[in-house]
Amino acid sequence: MHIRTDFPYETTHEDLYIPLADGTQLYARIWRPVTDEPVPALLEYLPYRLSDWTAPRDWQRHPWYAGHGYASVRVDVRGHGNSEGMPGDEYDATELADGVAVVHWLAEQEWCSGRVGMFGISWGGFNSLQIAALAPEPLKAIVTVCSADDRYDNDVHYMGGSVLGVDMHAWASTMLAFVSRPPDPADVGDDWRDMWLRRLEKVEPFIHTWLAHQTRDDYWKHGSVCEDYGAIRAKVLAVGGWHDPYRDTVLRLVEHLDPGQVRGLIGPWSHQYPDRGLPPGPAIGFLQETLRWWDQHLKDKDTGVMNEPLLRSWISGSHPPATVYETLPGRWVGDAAWPSENVAPVTYALGGGAQIVRSPQQTGLDAGRFFPFGNDADLPPDQRDEDAKSVCFEFPVEDAPIEILGRPLMTLLLRMDVPRGQVIARLCDVAPDGSSTLVTRGALNLAARHGRDRAEDWPVGEAEYVNFELNGIGHTFPPGHRIRVAISSSYWPWIWPQAGSAGFTLEAEGSLVELPVRRHTEDPGITFGAPEQAEPLGVVHPVTLDEQRPERLVVRDVAKGEWRLEVDPRYGGTRVYPDGLEFTEDALETYTIQQDDPLSARARSDWTIRLHRPEMSWDVRVETRSELSADADDFITSNEVVCRDGDEIVFHRTWEKRIPRTGG
């Protein structure tokens, strides 16, 4: 990583409030180049608190953009951080309308040229897309990283129509802890506690809303730009990583937007900006790449960025299974259109007789993290244990490598003796030594087989064909390896098990997988600069003598037939900021299930957050507990928030709620 300190422009920054029409003010930090000439503005807009949680990341890129002649702006969503107002649901109409208002406010400033870009990763990438679909006139270009165009089937809530047990609950729990944090008195003054208490009275666990919409209804269509790609007028650079769950959005955007409007980039990365150097690499000079995008579309410079292939993709080479890779083998390829003339479906018939698929409920414990962040235990380990709990089909790779790029398609003929169930398919690369590396996977709630907008019971005892795609991937299977398709009926804790699920019969003779095989093309010479960033903020991570608990720990109670997965998400630990703020967070997620009982599934998340300013004698704590279970009829949620100012408990609330099981 090159830390850059010399730029074409000197820079300055300030914190201020951006006024909205209803009188609410949003907290903002603006870095600007020192110049008398108006410059374009770049906006990153999200709820994750610019004064502490994202501050280290913000300082890597916003000053860098300012040094290259842009006003780079970081704004907290209403009701979060130091912004006024009450918090709402994610990407709700108020959040998006506020974002549109901020775009217009920026364009109207005397230091702005009137042209605005938006960028962000995850939440910030989501609302960049969604605000672009509202088409405010000053918004000319966006860079959306690790985001989704479909809030139902390509986000953190549902997968293939099934509840994402691993992350719907975990992320709702995380946001409950995040939204319960107070404003900072160093920024908002003595009113911080009143603001905090007013905000806390409006807090509602997201899990209640998300579980109330178990099929793809109007709630999920809101903010899903796939409903109308044509509404987007801005130029779109869509970026993803093969180890990020949102990477299929890049493929859909380059397919559905006008080729003169969009470019796609998919690397080997996890849920991170591609310049941060977090595993898996290789990292790229992403800030330089985005600068080409901004200069082209906000300053009318011909940077050649629109001469790049429509889609630039990393094709990973075969690699042994591991939970972390510093870098992956592979190469960059370019495709001028998507779907690409270089890619064609190749069918592999599963073949054979009827196979009973009845996986134990703990199948899926080796799935890895839904959101890999570059930690040591994020990625799936050797899949041989998972494969043993599945029905597997293998296809040898003989004389030449088989390179795939895109989304494999499963067509399965199933027979089921109960009305509800799930099917999960994994594609693995099996080496001559028998090790099995997960390549990609997909899932289907069989009640959603005719559409994600409905839930239809299976006709008991009858056979039907079902079709579903696996997540997109770029991968090369070398000669001497085997392509393995593994079919299971459970995948805990990613997929919440269906009540009464008893597996199914797979009629292998009528079933197949289509692989998107890409013909080998010559090296297109795609290159990127080395990663560089602005000078870091200077956050200190105090050394602790306490032994860290494992990132992922699996515990088996043999007598009870119970399995427990404990996950430490490693979001940050303790940090001391240059302004004296001490910030500590600790989280533990726990998932338990009995191997023969789908109704035994339990998820729990515990959070503790401390914000401390010794010089101000300010010391606050937030503690949350969130639990999710289910019986045959209902999901059962339990949430608790305790907030302390010093030793005083200033807020304590619990929520207990039963939500009928309908589709998910």
Automatic annotation (TrEMBL):
Ranges where the Xaa-Pro dipeptidyl-peptidase C-terminal domain occurs: 291-537
UniProt KW keywords: Hydrolase
Organism: [Kitasatospora] papulosa
Pfam families xrefs: Peptidase_S15, PepX_C
Keyword Calcium annotated: no
Hydrolase found in the keyword field: yes
Matches recorded under SUPFAM superfamilies: alpha/beta-Hydrolases, Galactose-binding domain-like
SMART domains: PepX_C
Classification via NCBIfam families: CocE_NonD
GO molecular function, one term: hydrolase activity
Superkingdom of origin: Bacteria
Protein name: CocE/NonD family hydrolase
